[in-house]
Amino acid sequence: MSKENMQKNKIKVFPLISKSEIKKKVKDLSQKISQDYKGKELNLILVLKGAFVFGADLIRFLKIPARVYFLRAKSYEKDKSTGKVKIEFSAGKEIEGKNVLILEDILDTSLTLKEIIKFLKKFQPKEIKTCVLLEKKVPKREKIKVDYVGFKIENKFIVGYGIDYDERFRNLPYIGYIKLN
Ligand code: IMP
Ligand code: MG
Fold this sequence. Notes:
Number of helices: 4
CATH topology of the domain at 19-73 and 88-154: Rossmann fold
CATH class of the domain at 19-73 and 88-154: Alpha Beta
Order of helices and strands: HEHEHEEEHEEEE
Shape: globular
Bound molecules: inosinic acid, magnesium ion
């Protein structure tokens, strides 16, 4: 094993939000969304990879039909944002004139969500709304309207429940944080 890998294996995860707290919150969010979209067509856009567990849980509590699309957005290298967001999405034509709800894992600087919204607007959906599981309390964030927020959390580096550090820890059933120097 390389020295870098050995160091990676030593990373300690501090629990922050338990499995049962997450379940309750995701169910609440899903029920709110079900009420708000009653009688409307709901098109969920799940942002990969981080929101895959969140999205998979949320759709199973929905009381209304929904279509699910996947969008890939990448801006982080390990624990740092590169400042650029790469987006891959192949269903542009299908969302024209539709109600779109973006499902994202974490709102940090808001750069990712902003770029995704800008990108999706090109396909002229009827409406774009946003739902994030975690919103970090960061001192300076450009204004962005988030329609549904799960938890507001301290500004720490989060892992678990689909969220990674350098592709690790996505499998944890709870949400925790790691300390990085
Ligand atoms: P933003 O663009 O700064 O708002 O960061 C949002 C994106 O960066 C999310 O989609 C996450 O994938 C990733 N991200 C932000 N903070 C964290 C974190 O604490 N842990 C893991 N990924 C994060
Ligand atoms: Mg993400």
